[in-house]
TrEMBL record:
Keywords: Glycosidase, Hydrolase. GO terms for biological process: carbohydrate catabolic process. Belongs to the glycosyl hydrolase 1 family. InterPro entries: GH (IPR017853), GH_1_N_CS (IPR033132), Glyco_hydro_1 (IPR001360), Glyco_hydro_1_AS (IPR018120). The active site is at residue 381. It comes from the Bacteria. PROSITE patterns: GLYCOSYL_HYDROL_F1_1, GLYCOSYL_HYDROL_F1_2. The keyword Hydrolase applies. It comes from Liquorilactobacillus sucicola DSM 21376 = JCM 15457. One of its GO terms (molecular function) is beta-glucosidase activity. The keyword Hydrolase applies. This is Beta-glucosidase. Pfam families: Glyco_hydro_1 (PF00232).
Amino acid sequence: VDFPKDFPKNFLWGGATAANQIEGAWDIDGKGLTTAEVVRKADDRKKMSMNIVDPSSIKAAINDSTTANYPKRRGIDFYHHYKEDIKLFAEMGFKVFRFSIAWARIFPNGDNLQPNEKGFEFYDRVLDELENYGIEPLITLSHYEMPLALTQKQNGWLDRATIADFTRYTEVVFKRYRGRVRYWLTFNEINTGTWGFHETGVVDSHLDKKEQENVRYQALHHQLVASALATKQLHEIDPKAKMGCMLARMQTYPATCRPEDVRAAQMEDQKNLFFTDVQARGEYPEFMNRYFAENGIQIKMAEKDQEILASSPVDFVSFSYYMTTVTSAEAGEEVNGNMATGGRNKYLEESDWGWQIDPIGLRITLNEMWDRYRKPLFIVENGLGALDKLEDGKVHDEYRIDYLRKHIEQMKEAIKDGVQLMGYTMWGPIDLISFSTSEMSKRYGFIYVDQDDEGNGSLKRIRKDSFYWYKKVISSNGADL
Ligand code: BG6
């Protein structure tokens, strides 16, 4: 046995982004309005705003043709800066770049029958540029957005018709990029659809909690079926390409060793892993069937759905990792996380946004995910949102280096534990618009972008200290941390 193991030679080091957080150019070249572009920015740094939508706020957003209150419309103008940005990624030595395609660039209304050629041309250019530098693309087909028209017409994923709209989109994308893209993901952090609108495009603010839960799991069932169908399509159209699922993995610890707490934590974990269970193993796990039955949740399935799920499991399992939480059998103090709510862990430090930092949790997570699925794993998000200071043209972000170093050390330990890990795309290699609060000042990047929360600034790109550090990490294949 070749022990101790280390990062494999072909390990995919890189960074991850999403269309609605970087592209801008929200209303040009035929693009339709997306669900992400009608969510106002948060008034309070610690309060997430991505689900505060109702029919009247959507109407107000449609009537407002500015980007002022809707920062995801302007992003960091990657649409016009992609060459410069990819060049900087190449300078760091990226092997892979994760980005998403905005569905509404390809099908502006979601139900169009013919794709929008201009929308495709943008992604053609991005792929050309990545190929120039030998950077492998990893594409998310739906990252927290969809054509708003589908929400207006059929309440997003709640309607089964959205499955056909989605697979019409994925089919043209796979055909166009056959042979050019090896790694794909269907839905970003699919489990967060239990939190509502941003993932499913379902407006349910008028419903009570119980009805909301029902509606959300129904919409998510449609996404799970669509994900399996897209996996099948990909395998037929481009047999060498690989499809992954994507989970916001939220490991939770029991608050004490009291069996009631341990059991409560186990259930929390099962609810989180449910999605990947379906996507990787091809069926609804029994514990969720029981949960649905006991909580009055009735999922309408079409006759063939179970067969579809079983026939096309994903090739690899990807997830984001930002934090862990704590669960107790009783309701306790809540920690504000990346939409995660759970107990606070007194042993951990936290970020400026109250996200608890737990590098060892990453090793635990990797081991457990590998044991559970025995499919290659890919960490497609991990990073630190912080308030950076630009001084004399420099950003000394040693706190970010420290965060990433500690997480990468634990990745290395997990690899030595025997985990098969394909790659690591750090979240937000370039500062971008925050998902949960739509702030610019929640910065993740190795590259600083000169833009403030109001959208003022030159958009100039500036290398932070962490830029040089990550470059060294990649060139030494994780040896020099
Ligand atoms: C993940 C999302 O949940 O976390 C990203 O997939 C997001 O889109 C990232 O940006 C960090 O969250 P935030 O709210 O700090 O941007």
